[in-house]
């Protein structure tokens, strides 16, 4: 008597897009609230946003008492706008990231429609985007790339209209999108957002080369003027070193022999398939053999993805999330093929991918855990992911699986991955307890010194009202300790080793975060080696 209602609900769940959309939102929302800010990137970006909130000065971002030139300010502005409504919370910044990701969905659907994709292809494209590992990981992660993806999709959507009668509106939309992208991550936004327009005479039949390129130039000029409206006054306010950094160093310094994240040219080749899981392993050839009319869309995908991917590979500085703005192009191509029946999602392959992810979580995060409870939590989450994977293998009666269900399976697996990370790795990555101690000491007037690179580690979690002085010179640590015997020396670097017993110690990443009373270090300071020993 009870089987029929359950069967009816499952059939309705498979057939009703709104139910699957609600399920996706319910799987994406919990990490917004249970994930703590993860060092060193998220804690650093929140520190910059907090300093902006504290000072009320939005023109030049600040970190550790100096102008912060690594990133442009748009994301920090948006975080502070959200905080004006919600109050200052880490979850509010994560919620902003999730809302940015959700905003990409209608833009992707609209872009597909503008490029001639049918309803089934558009829906499949959206689920491919929502269910790929990269989006599931970065949907609520405090990074700049989801906002850049949003700006890129706006620019891509405006591109076909450059060849139409309403091209002035398209130029304006593209200028705003590209200019906002520059205010997110710098000139790379012009590359990822503008490349399809540059190649439009090749993929867009009605595009006339000269007219299209002149309109693209107008959009680029508008984008540059929009970015300069911030950059010029910020350069004057931030000083010569800051001006040099935002105009030259932060872009050119990553091209050859990057100062950060230098990788070989081929590094993205194995990273890209991992970011597109489970689809790279789960999609097989379908039964349909007829053409799907996707010629223009396919050429757009090549124009949007291939040149930018090649240039990204040639640039020295590389990170997985740098590819995020390019991935919607691939999901469009895949969606067209799924919608036409040329491709299909194989359920047992989805299940196998999820099961392997579960095993990796249980083993990897289980080893990372610092206590038995964390190890058990990681193993339990990994086992649940395996169960989710097996549900796609057992009892499958059809040769293909709806792409929406597969995407929900990936979202469920990544939700459990994030929960396992919190259960297993919180003692290594959650610095809230140390930040509270430092904040109390700062309020009490205790002198503080950070030994080694600081990166705003404790600023947001402690809501610090003044920067902590820092030095990477061991002799300076010695001199400061002698001058401030009642002060505290803080470090997260393994190279700073002192015989004295710390006032506070906790695991931190692959080492530890320690706080000493400066007087206990006098005469006991040992210089760190020039390079890390482990």
UniProtKB/TrEMBL annotation:
Domain Glycosyltransferase RgtA/B/C/D-like span(s) in chain numbering: 70-233
Mode of membrane association: Multi-pass membrane protein
Membrane spanning stretches: 21-40, 74-91, 98-115, 127-155, 167-192, 212-232, 265-284, 296-315, 322-340, 346-365, 377-395, 401-426
Domain of life: Bacteria
GO molecular function: pentosyltransferase activity
GO terms under biological process: lipopolysaccharide biosynthetic process; response to iron(III) ion
One GO CC term on file: plasma membrane
Record-linked InterPro entries: LipidA_mod_glycosyltrf_83, RgtA/B/C-like
Main localization, broad class: membrane
Subcellular location: Cell membrane
Keywords for this protein: Cell membrane, Glycosyltransferase, Membrane, Transferase, Transmembrane, Transmembrane helix
Protein name: Glycosyl transferase
Organism: Rhodanobacter thiooxydans
